[in-house]
């Protein structure tokens, strides 16, 4: 059974090692998440410890997926900071360990982030993912709309430039308690 939990800032710090394990696994597997391979443990830990502050100040929300008590995935919601964009947020760093894929973990995390966005008054979500990655299928099957492809957007973990596909999703105003 997949258990999804939203983490407090203290929990983000306390679980930094488990989150670093997930990050290390997905980067080693070739996922383009902003890191190069090989990923140093210190860099992975520093990244996750650094996420506690944005969670504390309300700029970000972080969820983990656990199977049998083990963290196997995570996703973040980055809320827009400017007053004219508070209806908008970005889905970021959706990742699932390679040995936990194919069990619905990514979909469960994405669903949690979407519901969390609605509960925070968000009506528009955006994200980008490496073009041709398995994540593209997830987003399309979850009702996301492709905006387009940007060539040479970022390097993959091996240092090779890759394109990214940008997506958006309009969230239901009817189910959003903060929007009339």
Observed structural traits:
6 helices; 180 residues; acyltransferase; alpha+beta; acyltransferase activity, transferring groups other than amino-acyl groups; transferase; N-acetyltransferase; Acyl_CoA_acyltransferase; Aminopeptidase
Q: Tell me the number of strands.
A: 7
CATH T-level fold name = Aminopeptidase
Distance between the termini: 36 Å
The CATH superfamily label reads Gcn5-related N-acetyltransferase (GNAT)
Order of helices and strands: EHHHHEEEHEHEE
The portion of residues assigned to helices is: 25-40%
Poorly predicted spans:
none
Give the CATH class: Alpha Beta
Structural class: alpha+beta
- The rounded Rg comes to 16 Å
Main sheet overview: 7 strands, mixed
Structural domains: how many? 1
